[in-house]
C-alpha cells in the first residue's frame, strides 16, 4: 500500500463529473490497483475513488506557465487513474508532505464473534434454551427453498422449526413462515411449530410472528457462551 499526504486537486470524468479543489488530503493506492482520496473526516468513506480494475499512470509535472495566475500552486506531479469503462480520475499534486509504501501481506479477514452461525451452533448445543425437555433433531434441515436453521422436538415430542438471527426483523419472520408451510406438508413431521430466535427482535417482527402463531425467543449470546454466570452477579 502506498500512502501519500499532499495538497491535491482531483477531477473525475465519466458517467458524471466531479471536482475537488486544491487541499491537503490523504491518497491511498492499494495493491489491487484501487485509488482513494480521503479528508480528515467522514470515517472510512473517501471523497472520491476509483475501484479496480484500473491503472495509475504518473505523469511529469507540467512546466510553469509564464502567464500563470499569481499565487497559484506549482504542481509536483500529475496522476491519471483510468478505469475499465473509460472513466478517469485526474489527481494534480502540489506540495507532497509524505510518500511511503508498505507491504501488508495477505490479510486473514475479519473474524466476527457472535454471528448467526455461532449463535446457531450454541443453540444447537443447548436446545433446552427454548424449554425443558427440548432436543435437537438436525441443524440446517433442508427444505425445497433452503435449510431451516434448527429442527427440534419439544418436551411433548412435537417438531419445531427454529430460525436464528442476530437481529430479528420482518424478513426473518417471512422466511420462517415459508419454511413452515413446506414442513407441514410432510406427513412424517405432522404439525410443525415455529420459533423465531434472535438477540434482538424488532417490535414489528414480533407482532407479525405472534399473529402467525410463531413464538419469539430473545437469546443472550454471552449467557449461551458461558461468559455471563448469573451466580457470580452482585445484582
Summarize the structure.
By secondary structure, the protein is an alpha+beta fold. About 15% of the residues lie in helices and about 45% in strands. The strands form two sheets. A seven-stranded antiparallel sheet has the order 4-3-2-1-7-6-5, with no helix packed on it.
Portion of residues within helices: 10-25%
Average of pLDDT: 89
The percent range for strand residues is 35-45%
Shape by Cα distribution? elongated
- What structural class do you assign from the helix and strand content? alpha+beta
Count up the domains.
2
What name does the CATH topology of the largest domain carry?
A: Trna Endonuclease, Chain: A, domain 1
How many H/I helices?
4
What is the CA-based Rg, rounded? 28 Å
Please explain how this structure is put together:
The chain is of the alpha+beta class and 235 residues long. The chain has 2 domains: 2-101, Distorted Sandwich (Protein Yojf, Chain: A); 116-232, Trna Endonuclease, Chain: A, domain 1 (3-Layer(aba) Sandwich), CATH 3.40.1350.10. It is 16% helix and 43% strand. The chain is built from 4 helices and 12 strands. It has helices at 116-125, 170-183, 203-211, 221-225, and strands spanning 2-13, 17-29, 35-38, 48-50, 54-60, 77-83, 88-101, 135-143, 146-153, 159-168, 193-201, 215-218. It has a 7-stranded antiparallel sheet, with no helix packed on it. A 5-stranded mixed sheet has the order 8-9-10-11-12, with helices on both faces. A hairpin with a 4-residue loop joins strand 6 and strand 7. Helix 2 (170-183) packs parallel to helix 3. The chain is elongated. The two termini are 50 Å apart. The model has no long low-confidence stretch (mean pLDDT 89).
Amino acid at each position: 500500500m502506498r500512502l501519500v499526504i499532499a495538497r491535491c486537486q482531483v477531477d473525475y470524468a465519466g458517467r458524471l463529473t466531479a471536482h475537488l479543489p486544491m487541499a491537503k488530503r490523504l491518497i491511498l493506492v492499494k495493491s489491487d490497483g484501487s485509488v482513494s482520496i480521503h479528508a480528515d473526516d467522514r470515517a472510512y468513506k473517501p471523497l472520491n475513488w476509483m475501484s479496480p480494475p484500473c491503472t495509475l499512470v504518473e505523469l511529469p509535472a507540467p512546466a510553469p506557465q509564464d502567464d500563470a495566475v499569481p499565487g497559484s500552486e506549482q504542481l509536483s506531479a500529475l496522476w491519471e487513474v483510468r478505469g475499465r469503462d473509460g472513466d478517469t480520475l485526474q489527481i494534480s499534486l502540489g506540495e507532497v508532505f509524505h510518500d511511503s509504501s508498505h507491504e501488508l501481506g495477505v490479510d486473514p479477514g475479519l473474524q466476527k464473534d457472535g454471528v448467526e452461525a455461532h449463535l446457531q451452533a450454541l443453540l444447537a448445543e443447548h436446545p433446552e434454551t427454548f424449554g425443558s425437555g427440548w432436543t435437537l433433531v438436525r441443524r440446517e434441515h433442508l427444505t425445497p427453498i433452503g435449510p431451516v436453521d434448527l429442527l427440534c422436538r419439544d418436551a411433548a415430542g412435537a417438531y419445531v422449526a427454529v430460525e436464528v438471527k442476530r437481529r430479528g426483523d420482518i424478513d426473518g419472520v417471512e422466511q420462517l413462515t415459508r419454511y413452515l408451510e413446506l414442513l407441514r406438508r410432510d406427513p412424517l413431521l405432522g404439525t410443525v411449530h415455529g420459533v423465531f430466535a434472535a438477540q434482538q427482535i424488532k417490535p414489528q417482527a414480533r407482532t407479525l410472528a405472534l399473529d402467525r402463531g410463531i413464538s419469539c425467543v430473545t437469546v443472550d449470546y454471552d449467557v449461551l457462551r458461558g461468559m455471563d454466570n448469573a451466580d457470580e452477579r452482585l445484582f
